[in-house]
Description:
Blueprint: H1 12-22, E1 28-31, H2 34-37, H3 41-54, E2 58-61, E3 66-67, H4 73-76, H5 78-105, E4 118-120, E5 128-130, H6 135-146, H7 151-160, H8 166-172, H9 187-195, E6 203-205, E7 208-210, E8 218-220, E9 227-229, H10 239-252, E10 268-270, E11 278-283, E12 291-296, H11 300-303, E13 309-311, H12 312-331, H13 333-380, H14 386-419, H15 423-438, H16 444-450, E14 451-456, E15 462-466, E16 482-484
Parallel strand pairs: 1-2, 10-14
Antiparallel strand pairs: 2-3, 4-5, 6-9, 7-8, 11-12, 12-13, 14-15, 15-16
Helix pairs in contact: 3-5, 6-10, 7-9, 12-15, 13-14, 15-16
Amino acid sequence: xxxxxxxxxxxxxxxxxxxxxxxxxxxMVITKDLSRLGRDYIxxxxxxxxxxxxxxxxxxxxxxxxxxxxxxxxxxxxxxKAIMNDMYAKDISKKIRSVFREKQNQGENLCSxxxxxxxxxxxxxxxxxxxENVVDIVRKIFDxxxxxxxxxxxxxxxxxxxxxxxxxxRKTGIVQDKNKTGYNxxxxxxxxxxxxEVYIGNTVQNKTTVISYKVKKIKTVKKEDQIRVNNTHKPxxxxxxxxxxxxxxxxxxxxxxxKYDYLxxxxxxxxxxxxxxxxxxxxxxxxxxKLHPYITCTNYKTRGYYPININYEKFEKQILDIVRKITQxxxxxEMLDSVYxxxxxxxxxxxxxxxxxxxxxxxxICEINNDLDKMYTDKLRGIILQEDYIRYAxxxxxxxxxxxxxxxxxxxxxxQEKKSDKAKEENESREVVENFLKLEQIDKIYLYRxxxxxxxxxxxNVYIYFNFSRLNFMDENxxxxxxxxxxxx
Length: 489
């Protein structure tokens, strides 16, 4: 059943009323009170002051004592009543939004339709549980994409095996149908699943909102303003796999300008402004030359940085040669161990530095706690006033909150450093390298799995940042990346 609010005049019953007025079928409109006509004070006034008199329509609001046919003081205050009705609607809207926002902040899932792979908890309201009927399909989608399959290939696989799309499953309750003729999977559906944090146990809400309580047009909310609560339900996908998939997805993007999808597209960045560089087709300086792809920073003038103009074909060839050499070194266990020993010494220094910063923050937090205790004692003794205590306590409590956040971030970095040489990454990196070296023709997805990004500076120096910690330390400088000086000169 469709519900129509008083803040809109686009209601079936009201439209029928206007139709009768235009056809001169009626000459009088009666409502219980003014709010039953509408709660938008601008349009309500327009109908009462202009439209009804123009059409010779008498309007009566019974409980408000409004009757446009007679001269009454109640008619004079009609605009003020219309404003009050509008304000009431606005107040109700604020209260409802406030309740929803509080529930979202508590991690309650307010979506009417659960994400594919989940269903509503049978007894706990606004809680998700895993749907065992289709959970394996979700895992298959992530597994295929992480192992190099495109969204098109995944969609073709699911359709070929007669799996119904999320819409089809929701409407029919059938997972796989041999006689399937509709409810096909497509790239958009696959991408939406791959990007959805719900599969790692997070609830992200407030992604869209309406412009106002009157204007129901939907707009997208900025990512930083969305409400994100972690660990609200049981995850389906490991966070490590999810981040790897989304890293590939972000780099891969879509390609609509070129017939050929360049291997390094999405990986190349400007060293100075840290923005992605573009690949554009240009002619060389020689006469009657053909179009060739060039790497360029199209907005370098407006950004105030340096121009970059590099022949992409030469760039790709040399980059692939360097990557092959590094991966071959990585595959040589003896060479790898000698290089990695130097890397471990450097990471030990990083860990010690992080631990030192955490200890300094702990000391500051302890000092703040002692200050608060002393101030509270002074307040009880009457040495400082209540308002002075509150003002200063709020100030240093805010400072303590920021220190706690800094400590949490440093602790996360320290944990990552400790985990960086774990077997999980080691096994995956070795598997990717071995498969990469076996390829006769370089695969774009494998390149994405190996390389995080490639930066080029104004002097055409190239910096390669790998996804795996050990690959980043295959050169002697151990700066966390491979720097190739004047590679393109």
